[in-house]
Amino acid sequence: MRVLQICNKPPIPAVDGGCIAMNNVTKGLLDQGHEVQILTICTKKHPFREDELSDLYKEKTLIQGVFVDTKVNFVDAFSNLVTSDSYNVSRFFSPDFDLRLISILRKKKFDVVHLESLFMTPYIHSIRRFSKAKVILRSHNLEYMIWERQAEGAKNPAKKIYISMLARQLKKYELKIMNEVDGIAAISRQDADKYLGFGCTTPMQISPFGIDMEEHDSIAKKAPQNTVFHIGAMDWKPNLEGLGWFKSEVWPSIKNVELHLAGRNMPSWFMEENDTSIINHGEVESAKDFMDDHAIMIVPILSAGGMRVKIIEGMARRKAIISTTIGAEGISCTHGKDIIIADTKEEMIEAINKLIGDPELVKEIGNNARKLVEDRYDNMQIIKDLVEFYKGLD
After folding, report:
1. E strand or H helix at 113, and its extent?
2. What pLDDT, on a 0 to 100 scale, did the predictor assign at position 84?
């Protein structure tokens, strides 16, 4: 099949979960003999570093990047509140990107145009006008839910009202667009059920984040037992919010344990207390090596949607993981078997102390987690199923 993959940020370098998820779709399609061409938005936060791409990758994907200024403009944001358009989505539309897309569609016929996230849907009009390809929305999460949860957690009344308005706009747009595509590849069963509950009539495939098991050793590496770690980009608000809660509410009650943090763009104020039990590694060269060097993984997410890529990667590396219910959302895991779910301060403290004191339980949960990933999240099978879904839309 000939697939045009349209991305809201460059899949490579794979600096966060979204990039990894997009790149795994690219890699899976190419490995199974399909043609893939990539057109991506690039921004100041996510630049297009063509010089870092291999010649083979560029040859196979014909990747092109178009700069789009997606930073928040307060005048535009206020105007959109008045017009009721979703500002979260509209700032991803660019005439330059649209012209580049039209140029590609005029030169080549595609079977599928694969839109990575809701933010690429403003280009559906041009796709319909210049192509007969099926349009697939790869839904990484229901975007409005992230904003609803952030509004619930906002303490400033004005901020709560503003975020709630953004969430309502986004929900209205998301529920409209779900029936304007030819198919939806939902990241999880929970998200698919939510779409159906809103009256979605579009064909849907559950297509979770997949992992290349060959890239993850099947043998667990021995790590110091008294270490807890978190890995994730700290310029993503749910990570910063959740880790901030963990640091202030949970960590003071944990004794004789080290907390190791990895991820780009850690704000300077976050480490101001000079707590010697918290070690900030910044952006690490290898997420796999970082995981292997530490024992217990925490995912204290309070407001997000979709599926946490880092949990799947941690499971593949036999990590014992403690997560909130929201953090583990979308993953077919079982509390006490292949993950520990802890939603409150008290539950989180109890879970950490229990695992620190029981190395055999850490090993057991890690082994069960690896088995879960092998059974349900193998990228090759997930992409095979996705291609069958593509074909079934003809």
Report:
1. strand 112-116
2. 54
Q: Which amino acid is at 12?
A: I
Question: What's phi and psi for 373, nearest 5 deg?
Answer: -65, -40
- The count of domains in the chain is 2
Do both 364 and 256 map to the same domain? yes
299: domain range? 214-376
The enclosing domain of 128 has a CATH number of 3.40.50.2000
User: Counting every residue, how long is the chain?
Assistant: 394
Per residue in 242-280, pLDDT (tens digit) is 999 999 999 999 999 999 999 988 888 888 777 889 999
Whether residues 87 and 179 share a domain: the answer is: yes
Rounded to two decimals, the pTM is: 0.83
- 19 and 44 fall within a common domain: yes
The letter for the amino acid at 79 is: S
CA angle 109, 10, 21 (to 5 degrees): 90
Shared domain for 310 and 244, answered yes or no, is yes
Nearest to 143 by CA among 68, 86, 205, 183: 86
Q: What is the largest CA-CA distance in the chain?
A: 63
* Contact indicator for 11, 23 with CB cutoff of 8 Å: yes
CA 41 distance to own-chain centroid: 17
Task: Report the C-alpha gap between 134 and 313 in whole angstroms.
Answer: 31
Task: Give the tens place of pLDDT for each residue, 75-109.
Answer: 555 555 555 567 678 889 999 999 999 999 999 99
Residues 372 and 263 in one domain: yes
Please check whether residues 183 and 331 belong to one and the same domain.
no
What whole-number distance in Å separates Cα of residue 219 and Cα of residue 367? 10
The answer on 190 and 339 residing in a single domain is no
Q: Which of 258, 326, 223, 14 is nearest to 311 (CA)?
A: 326
**Residue type, position 386, single letter:** L
**Orientation of helix 74-83 relative to helix 157-177, angle to 10°:** 60
261 and 327 fall within a common domain:
yes
Q: In which residue are the tokens 């520990």 written?
A: 340
Between the alpha carbon of residue 387 and those of residues 33, 186, 363, the distances in Å are 11, 14, 36
Give the pLDDT confidence of 177-212 residue by residue, as tens digits: 999 999 999 999 999 999 999 999 999 999 999 998
